[in-house]
Every structure is written in structure tokens, then in C-alpha cells.
């Protein structure tokens, strides 16, 4: 552990939404939730509703990458497999989630999501970057990594 790295990270469970404390060195050791016992990282985007969204972006200490999408959106459906592929590459350094803007219109309105698909990157509960439009997996990974700020 370097002098500037945190002693532990808070990671919200993608299954039960419990907040877990985890030493940074354990991120790559397939950690499990202390409450439900399931994997904290699944290598797939976590589908979040409005009720779960805020907890995940506010309580997770690693960057949270969000895909705002809708089922009727052709470009969104085209990008889905690329986003899933990017999740396999980005986890566990990132939490990768998706929000259906039709089912969670309040979040889309609150964040002024004007087009879909839109990628947004959150750190420490704050949006730090946004990218509209469908892109491939390599672009998603490169964009997320370039926009993520190092944990202080």
C-alpha cells in the first residue's frame, strides 16, 4: 500500500446492495459480499433502478461507469454486447452498471440525459465525464480509463 492509497475501499454489492469494506489489494482476488456471500464483481453490467442507482454511485469508492439506455433504442441494443465485453475488461477497477432511462426517468431527468446511449463516469458520487453515442468495447475501455481519476 502506498502512502496515498486508502486502507480499504467501499464496494456496493451488485446483488444485495450491502456496502463492503475491502483492502485495495483484494480487488483482484474475486471478493465476495460479507452479507449475501455472492461475488462482488461478475464481469457483467449491473442493471440498476432509480432506488439502487444513488447508493451505488455515492457509496462505491472505485469509478462507476454507467450506460444510460432504453429498450426501444437501436444504437443502445447494438452497443449492449460491446458494453458487456468492456465490463469484463474494466472490472474490478471499475463498477460497470446500466440504467434503463424508460424505467428510471427520474434519474435521466435529474442528470439531464438528452440522448441515448450515453456513457457517464462517476467518482466519489460526482459525474466526472460523459460520452454520448454508441461505441465499441475498445473505445469504452479506453475512454473510461482515460477519464478516471486516480484514487487519492
Automatic annotation (TrEMBL):
Lineage top rank: taxon: Bacteria
Coiled coil: none
Keywords attached to this entry: Disulfide bond, Electron transport, Metal-binding, Oxidoreductase, Redox-active center, Transport
GO molecular function, one term: metal ion binding
Protein's GO biological process: cell redox homeostasis
SUPFAM superfamilies from the UniProt entry: Thioredoxin-like
Transport is among the record's keywords: yes
Gene Ontology CC entries for this record: cytosol
Domain Thioredoxin intervals: 16-149
Family: Belongs to the thioredoxin family.
PANTHER family: GEO12009P1
NCBIfam families: PRK10996.1, thioredoxin
Name of the protein this chain belongs to: Thioredoxin
Organism: Janthinobacterium psychrotolerans
